[in-house]
Amino acid sequence: MIEKEEELHCSLKHKIPILMVAFDTTLKRNERILCCQCMENLGSKAQLMSFKKFVVIIEENQKLKYESVENVIMIRIKRIEELNKIFFIKI
After folding, report:
1. Is 23:46 a contact under the CB 8 Å cutoff?
2. pTM (two decimals)
3. What is the distance of C-alpha 67 from the center of its chain?
4. Which has the least CB within 10 A, 9, 49, 51, 61?
């Protein structure tokens, strides 16, 4: 994640931990992060997810992306090593 959890604040800048994330595309990005006070005033019927679960999903996605990139890199390294052997044998 780009942001650190302790640096995130709800749109009204309450000094309260973030509890939920709203999946409402009509809300601005910073309005989707909700503390308990913001949740009381939430007017939309947005689908909500706990912030902790949201962080876990992001971390899992990042891990999958990392593993995918790592696999591509390893395949390329093996191919380069094969080509390297071929060229050194011909010389």
Report:
1. yes
2. 0.70
3. 15
4. 61
Per-position DSSP letters for 26-76, written without gaps between them: TS-GGGGEE-HHHHHT--S---EEEHHHHHHHHHHHHHHHHHHHHHHHHHH
Question: And the tokens for 48?
Answer: 């909500």
**What are 75's two structure tokens?**
């395949």
Count of CB atoms within 10 A of residue 38's CB?
20
Q: Which helix (H) or strand (E) holds 21?
A: strand 20-22
Amino acid at position 34, single letter: L
**Per-residue pLDDT tens for 45-62?**
778 999 999 999 999 999
